[in-house]
Amino acid sequence: MKAGAVLVAALALTLLASPVAAADQASLTEIEKQVMCPVCGTLLQLAESPQAQRERVFIERQIDEGKTEAEIKDALVAEYGDEVLALPPGSGFSLSAYVVPIAALLIAAVALAIGVLRWRRAGGGSPAEGEAAAQPTEPSERDSERLDADLARYDL
Amino acid sequence: MPGSSLRRLLSVRSVISLLGVLAVVGLLVFGLVSKGSSGLAVGDPAPVSALPELEGGGSQSLADYRGRWVLVNFWASWCPPCRAEAPALEEFQQAHGGPGFAVLGVDTRDLTSDGRDFVRQHGLSYPQLRDGDGDAADDYGTTGLPESFLVDPAGKLRLHAPGAVDEEYLSEEVAPLLPGGKS
């Protein structure tokens, strides 16, 4: 009776654990999209060089040993350094790859907002000013003289 | 009053613009520097960064070889020309290796296990270092594999051989420079 209960419990645990194990199972296709071929400078997925082939063999060996995706990527970093990762790690100096573009966008947005506010405060682009600019003005005396001289020259 | 606020605005803008320009220039300089030098010229001091040994847990630097001639040979197990030149390098080490000269192999952008297998398969007896991320190869300005650099006892580059070396090159170009000076 006791042995039967143990067997049922073990079976239940196995059934529960299976989907988790399947989810953790690393795949070459997935890892190839996340790591580089260091010699080619391209994603491993796109590389066909002899070094890329050896890198694939290394990954397959790690998968056969039951390593997770994260463990395999760590092993690749230990072999080839951080540059083997397609996306830089989010720590240390590599963090700047994520922070700098966001900071640059924020600074640009703030500068643009400040610029627009100042321009509007200075009255730039106000409808009244636009209409005033469009109003015809009387020509100066000098302009009138030049106009008369030009018209006289053509004697229409 | 409006003039002073305009001046203040201009100075704030100038500082922001200057900072922006400095940031861009800084990033460009960093990018250029981190890509490594464009290559070593004969007479330049050879880089001496420490590297782990391919076998064992220690590390070595070219500085440890100061006072000796060293033929630094960058290779990888996946590189066919590296396989082709390995016997000639081993033979040269057997003939000339000693207190005045050594071949120093640097396994570059290679798997540790593959590099160790390569050394065993070719029976290489000279010291081997590991350059997994290729930084040392970049410091030397290598453009491919294999590449060899003859460094004199003062640590200056004396010969650069891009591509595989063979017995003829070693006996005619390298050997005459070594102590004794014969091929």
| Strand percent estimate of chain A | under 5%
The main β sheet of chain B shows up as: 5 strands, mixed
Return the string of H and E elements of chain A.
HHEEHHHHH
Measured between the Cα atoms of the first and last residue of chain B, the distance is: 85 Å
Annotation, overall tally of beta strands of chain A: 2
What spatial order of strands do you see in the largest sheet of chain B? Answer: 5-4-3-6-7
Structural class of chain A: mainly alpha
> What are the segments of chain A in which pLDDT stays under 50 over at least 5 consecutive residues?
none
Widest sheet, order of strands of chain A: 1-2
Number of strands of chain B: 7
The oligomeric state of the chains shown is: heterodimer
The residue fraction in helices of chain A comes out at 55-70%
The percent of residues in helical segments of chain B reads 40-55%
Strand count, sense and barrel status of the largest sheet of chain A are: 2 strands, antiparallel
Major interchain interface with per-chain residue totals: A-B, 19 and 18 residues
Gyration radius over CA of chain B: 23 Å
* Overall mean confidence score, pLDDT of chain B: 90
Give the count of helical stretches of chain B.
Answer: 5
The secondary structure category of chain B is: alpha/beta
Strand content of chain B: 15-25%
